[in-house]
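Priority: medium. Attachment 1 of 2:
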């Protein structure tokens, strides 16, 4: 379906596949990043401007559902030039399911990284070990690293979680790495601190990536070789019981399509994409934009919705 009117147009579509979700454990509060890979990519925790996907490929998830996990092979990854979760945040939790296909590489493979064009934070795998690294400009050495013993096996799904808990005003606190819900390594670590002046130089903490590191250094890309799924980020350090429950929170059925909306806008006119279930009450989707006269395409995920009407609405 296309919206080509420079003013107001409305169209409707019906979801082709029913979506049934059963949560086997309740999602803890504080979720700010929830990356789903269901044949397309989006952050289900909130509308996220600037989310990018470079030649993404998809694979079976741990439950055997086709095209429901991200195949990270060094060329396909998900990232954002405008979003980072770790920068200047003293406490957080990162979690994901990972299945490595190759553990023989000498370079670490990033499950997650922050910092474009300079690496400033990462959760990576090296020779089967999980390593967490954070950079802080107030620390003389800059980097702090916490690494486990070998915990991964090739071709096996493993749930990985990392928590950082730094008290307000403090520079360092406790970092804890969990494997399949069990704590395996803890240590003192400072939080990722980058001043606005340094970040504005497009160095260190500027952007995030799943399965990759985009950087100007010669050792880039530090790409994970395997499959990633259910990547979660929380704005606080979860308790051990909450972390243990994360590996039991998943979609039992997560197969449904996306719809692409294409439209044109008058140069200088502001627009807001909106949706409605009854053509009476309308709700905003995403941020307003200014028309340029050129075509604009928006991919709208449909896995959580049934039938909706959409319109590009001119606004003052």
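Attachment 2 of 2:
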């Amino acid at each position: 379906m296309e919206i080509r009117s420079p003013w107001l147009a409305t169209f409707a579509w019906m979801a082709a596949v029913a979506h049934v979700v059963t949560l086997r454990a309740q999602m803890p509060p504080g979720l700010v990043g929830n990356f789903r890979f269901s044949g397309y990519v989006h952050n289900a925790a909130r509308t996220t401007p600037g989310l990018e996907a470079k030649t993404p490929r998809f694979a079976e998830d741990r439950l055997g559902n086709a095209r429901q996990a991200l195949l990270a092979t060094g060329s396909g990854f998900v990232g954002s030039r405008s979003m980072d979760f770790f920068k200047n945040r003293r406490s957080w939790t990162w979690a994901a399911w990972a299945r490595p296909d190759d553990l023989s590489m000498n370079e670490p493979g990033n499950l997650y990284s922050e910092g474009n064009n300079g690496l400033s934070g990462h959760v990576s795998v090296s020779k089967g070990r999980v390593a967490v690294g954070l950079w802080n400009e107030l620390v003389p050495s800059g980097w702090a690293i916490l690494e486990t013993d070998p915990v991964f096996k090739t071709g096996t799904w493993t749930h990985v979680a990392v928590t950082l808990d730094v008290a307000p005003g403090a520079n360092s606190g406790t970092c804890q790495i969990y494997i399949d819900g069990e704590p395996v390594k803890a240590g003192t670590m400072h939080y990722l601190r980058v001043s606005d002046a340094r970040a504005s130089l497009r160095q260190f903490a500027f952007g995030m990536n799943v399965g990759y590191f985009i950087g100007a250094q010669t050792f880039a890309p530090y790409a994970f070789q395997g499959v990633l799924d259910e990547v979660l980020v929380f704005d606080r350090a979860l308790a051990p019981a909450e972390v243990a429950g994360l590996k039991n929170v998943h979609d039992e059925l997560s197969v449904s399509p996306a719809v692409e909306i294409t439209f044109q806008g008058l140069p200088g006119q502001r627009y807001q994409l909106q949706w409605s279930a009854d053509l009476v009450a309308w709700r905003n989707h995403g941020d307003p934009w200014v028309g340029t006269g050129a075509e604009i395409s928006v991919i709208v995920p449909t896995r959580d919705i049934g039938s909706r009407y959409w319109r590009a609405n001119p606004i003052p």
